[in-house]
Specification:
The structure holds 2 protein chains of 2 kinds. By secondary structure, chain A is an alpha/beta fold. Chain A has a single domain (about 20-255), classed as 3-Layer(aba) Sandwich (Carbamate kinase), CATH 3.40.1160. Chain A is built from 9 helices and 10 strands. Chain A has an 8-stranded mixed β-sheet, with helices on both faces. In chain A, strands 6-7 form a two-stranded antiparallel sheet. In chain A, helix 5 (about 115-130) links the parallel strand 3 and strand 4 (about 130-135). The model of chain A has no long low-confidence stretch (mean pLDDT about 95). Chain B is of the alpha/beta class. Chain B has a single domain (about 35-270), classed as Acetylglutamate kinase-like (Carbamate kinase). An 8-stranded mixed β-sheet of chain B has the order 3-4-2-1-5-9-10-8, with helices on both faces. A two-stranded antiparallel sheet of chain B has the order 6-7. In chain B, strand 1, helix 3 (about 55-65) and strand 2 (about 70-75) form a beta-alpha-beta unit. Classes of the chains: A alpha/beta, B alpha/beta. Chains A and B meet through helix 1, helix 3, helix 4 and helix 6 of A and helix 1, helix 2, helix 4, helix 5 and helix 7 of B.
Chain lengths: ~260, ~270
């Protein structure tokens, strides 16, 4: 008991197999800016796709904060507030979106769970309801890490959904965005950018692309993941891709740990 | 959203990509605000101090009492022996890092409660993360608050590179509190004079290091260090908390001297 947890040998000795707490649940992250902020035209077809999927699969649905989070970041930054405060502020925007999407999915039995009890009651809800919805924000709040560059919180909603999937040992994690996947460049700025169908996290880090369609910290998280060894980015504007990805088909970009 | 309502940065953030380094660099262009520039963050070690009981804890409590009115103190607690036990059982049972993080939180909370009762007669509160909005009031009125050092990541604790022990524990939690508030200092109260070239409990030839940078420390690639390695990584990226001091809380007067700004243990700096 007096061994130092900071000793490298002690740390290595704690490597062993990990149980999967919710092996049959799937995590689906619905983009804030990419889906919700685009309004009815884009969100309704996604809701419909999730409705059909909920008939056969258990879903943990996480939602991003979108434009309102970007806005509150810009005001907070202008006021000189630190990263941890920005992280704390952004929880509310994603929570609002979780309730918006939750209202649309309520007829299909999806429950919006408050963040304070979400982790602890997740096993209960996922066994009692076809799906649950939460704000994807991890509870880092004031304890958010200062990022390498600038002041934007590095653990945003993609990261929150990924860490949750890893901790609970979920079957898959799908990020629903408004692009077909990962491109060599931002396809909205350069139509000539080409789609990367599959890539390893380390390879992606080496390539140092100018921008990514997901939280960059996901790459580090993936490398250290024990249970969830890949995630897939799909285009929510092609809603049929969501169910396909959850069922294990390759319809967008798969980023894997190896 | 009307575009004229947005600042230039606002426009870039709303339309841009948050992984774009050019955009991210813009987000550091305004001068930051130090939220609690007069507060000192103190971490009282779990295994190193609290688990030693009265003999080690009472003198620290007395020193905290003596400094009420002299220094504002945000006091976080470590976890220690029971966390190690819970981690070992949890790892044997195969539970993930996130669950171990919940267990560690409980232990540092027990320690915070105990320190809280010892300081309760001075009206010093113990606050959980949800009560942090009240922290400035308590600090102003009572001069000190107690919190549990574990960051509230629970199931969202990141996996470590090696093994299964949560990499962001109480050293990291208190560090981030000091950073986010732009506090005056970050003092780790442990049971060694500071950092050594090896664990002085195991190796009598270990040499004391009074002052070192994170870069130098990383180059030494020590088998064991006196603070969580995550603290070193975060310090390099921090806006305010660019140095920490590790002191020996078993030596009476060290805490007061450290609060007064003296160098009494090991100072680790980012630069």
């Amino acid at each position: 008991m007096r061994e130092s947890l900071l000793d490298k040998e002690v740390m290595a000795s704690t490597e062993s197999s990990v149980v999967r707490m919710l092996p049959n649940a799937h995590v689906v992250k619905v983009g804030g800016r990419s889906i919700m902020d685009a309004g009815r035209e884009v969100t309704y077809p996604v809701v419909d796709a999730l409705r059909v999927l909920l008939e056969t699969e258990r879903l943990i649905i996480g939602v991003g904060g979108g434009v309102r989070s970007r806005h509150v970041f810009s005001i907070g930054l202008d006021l000189g507030l630190p990263t941890g405060v920005l992280a704390q502020l952004s929880m509310a925007d994603a929570l609002g979106n979780a309730h918006l999407l939750g209202a649309l999915l309520a007829p299909h039995g999806v429950v919006a769970i408050p963040p304070e009890i979400f982790g602890h009651l997740l096993p209960l809800f996922i066994h009692s309801a076809p799906g649950v919805i939460f704000n994807g924000v991890p509870p880092y709040s004031l304890w958010e890490h200062p990022p390498g560059i600038g002041r934007i919180p590095p653990h945003r909603t993609d990261a929150g959904c990924f860490i949750l999937a890893e901790c609970f040992g979920c079957k898959t994690i799908t990020l629903v965005k408004d692009v077909d996947g990962l491109y060599t460049e931002d396809p909205k700025e350069n139509p000539g950018a080409s789609l990367i169908e599959a890539i390893g996290a380390r390879e992606l880090q080496r390539r140092g692309l100018p921008s990514l369609p997901f939280d960059e910290v996901l790459l580090d998280l993936l490398v250290n993941a024990r249970l969830v060894r890949q995630f897939q980015i799909v285009n929510g504007r092609k809603p049929e891709c969501i169910a396909a990805a959850v069922r294990g088909e390759h319809v967008g970009t798969i980023v894997h740990a190896d | 959203m009307q575009n004229e309502l947005l600042t230039e940065l606002g426009k870039s953030l709303v339309t841009g990509n948050l992984t774009d380094p050019t955009l991210l660099a813009l987000t550091a262009s305004t001068e930051g605000v130090r939220i609690l520039p007069n507060a000192n963050v103190i971490k009282v070690g779990g295994q190193s101090l609290i688990d030693r009981g009265r003999e080690a804890v009472f003198p620290i409590i007395e020193e905290i009492e003596e400094n009420l009115g002299r220094h504002k103190m945000i006091i976080g607690t470590g976890a220690g022996t029971r966390a190690r036990h819970a981690y070992s059982v949890g790892i044997d049972l195969g539970v993930p890092t996130g669950v171990l993080s919940v267990l560690g939180t409980f232990v540092s909370m027990q320690n915070a409660r105990m320190l809280h009762y010892l300081l309760a007669k001075h009206g010093i509160p113990f606050i959980e993360p949800e009560q942090f909005p009240q922290l400035p009031l308590y600090l102003e009125e009572r001069g000190a608050v107690i919190f549990f050092g574990m960051p509230p990541y629970t199931f969202w604790q990141r996996n470590p590179d090696v093994g299964r022990i949560p990499p962001h524990r109480t050293d990291t939690g208190v560090f981030l509190v000091s950073e986010v508030f732009g506090a005056r200092s970050m003092i780790y109260v442990k049971d060694e004079d500071g950092l050594y070239t090896a664990d002085p409990k195991k190796d009598k030839r270990a040499k004391f290091i009074p002052k070192i940078t994170v870069g130098e420390l990383r180059e030494m690639d020590l088998q064991d260090v006196v603070v969580e390695r995550a603290v070193l990584d975060l310090m390099e990226r921090a806006e305010w908390r660019r140095s920490i001091q590790v002191i020996n809380g078993l030596v009476r007067g060290n805490l007061t001297r450290a609060l007064d700004g003296e160098h009494v243990g090991t100072v680790i700096t980012a630069d």
